Amino acid sequence: MEAEATRILIGVNESSLKGYPHPSISSRTAFEWTLAKIIRSNTAGFMLLFLHVQIPDEDGFDDMDSIYASPEDFQSMRQRDRIRGLHLLEYFVGRCHELGIRCEAWIKKGDPKEVLCSEVKRVHPDILVVGSRGLGPFQRVFVGTVSEFCVKHADCPVITIKRKADEAPQDPVDD
Amino acid sequence: MEAEATRILIGVNESSLKGYPHPSISSRTAFEWTLAKIIRSNTAGFMLLFLHVQIPDEDGFDDMDSIYASPEDFQSMRQRDRIRGLHLLEYFVGRCHELGIRCEAWIKKGDPKEVLCSEVKRVHPDILVVGSRGLGPFQRVFVGTVSEFCVKHADCPVITIKRKADEAPQDPVDD
């Protein structure tokens, strides 16, 4: 009988091109890398934790065509966001179920890098895996500082998985 | 039959307190963490690569009491360094042998952070694991920038393992 399973927390987000429920290329790459290189055939030795952090939609761009006439309309908007997030998580939970890997998945609202680090403090995973768009230093000023922040501030070892070059869209922001 | 083994490169160095052949607390912590959290019982699924980088001893402090009378004396000094490094690697290779994990180990001279990254380019490991003394921002100015450099520059995912707080000597430089 093996010791307690190694708990790996993976931060996942939606594709910026295709939107929900499609996972971003970076999230999928980080997940597949973890399966192939760490878990391998030892499915009983690991437990995966999937955290999706939704950024509060302050400018409401996604909802430009909606009409808000009552408090219930806002409630239904929040409900819709939540369902979209759940469909994203369904992808990863479904894959784990096929492979026989124990997992848990949940959604939080907030700044992804801050929430990832506070959730590490709360759930104490053995490893945090985050995908990265693998941008150059110039592009990094505008996007993709989540992994760098976590490497510095998370209270557990962090693995940053850069997207494979052949999977990168021409514009790296299209993840 | 599983896919090709996951190759993990671990950078190891000697204890700054006890000297050769004793591994530093950080190296041992990184190695033991890799065994417990990644390899677990799946010893056939992984191969460990141990790299010890010796910093060229430019000021010759260690050899203050030696007399150098001929080119051969210098040769024997270099030979002695090499043997000390081999005894350090023997610790890790011995542990792997006991556990039935395939491994390779070698020594290079140079700046540890530069050599670790160039060896990643040469041997293409799946993961680089480096220990870290876990110093605060002030102490980090003087020591322990290897892991930060590798996270930024190595061509493979990097895991930095910070030493456990209860294993840290009072002066963090005494590793």
From TrEMBL, chains A, B:
GO MF annotation: an example: AMP binding
Cite the InterPro entries for this sequence: At3g01520-like_plant, Rossmann-like_a/b/a_fold, Universal_stress_UspA, UspA
- Protein name, please? Universal stress protein A-like protein
Give the matching Pfam families: Usp (PF00582)
Which segments constitute the UspA domain? 24-162
